[in-house]
Amino acid sequence: MAGEVGRGKSFYEGQLVDGKAHGSGKEKLANGDVYNGEWNNGSKHGTGTMKYDDGSMYEGEWKDGYPDGKGTYNFAKGGEYKGDWKDGFKHGKGTCNWASGSVHEGEWKDSSR
Q1: Beta-carbon neighbour count of residue 28 at 10 Å?
Q2: Residues facing 55 on adjacent strands
Q3: In whole angstroms, what is the distance from residue 30 CA to residue 73 CA?
Q4: What pTM was estimated for this model as a whole?
Q5: Distance from C-alpha of 80 to C-alpha of 48, rounded to nearest angstrom
């Protein structure tokens, strides 16, 4: 079933099951962030893209509402991280190309190198 759900000042448009986002859908948050992708039982889950109001963007895999798996994060002021994520943090193998031109390739844990 497709539908629309208002969540306070946030808005969801897409597939619903039992009134929860499930399948493909798009959510615009009150702060201006926009997620477009897959959902499971009301949480971002599967593949999707989050465009943040500050100009940054994450594209990749999600699990239980957080970036988890393979994904790419483009920083608002330039540069990107491409690699593994866990529970919303850079975690595992990945490469970060900073806007300054420096590069870090290797292991990450909880977004630290």
Answers
A1: 17
A2: none
A3: 21
A4: 0.90
A5: 17
Cβ neighbourhood burial of 101 (10 Å; 0-12, 13-18, 19+): exposed
How far apart CA 12 and CA 5 sit, in angstroms, is 5
Count of CB atoms situated within 10 Å of the CB of 104: 13
**Biggest alpha carbon distance in the chain?**
48
Question: Residue 9's pLDDT is what?
Answer: 81
Q: What pLDDT is attached to residue 2?
A: 60
Q: Which residue has the tokens 């330039």?
A: 78
Burial of 85 (0-12, 13-18, 19+ CB in 10 A): buried
20 vs 16: CA distance, rounded Å: 5
Query: How does pLDDT run across 14-54, given as a tens digit for each residue?
Result: 999 999 999 999 999 999 999 999 999 999 999 999 999 99
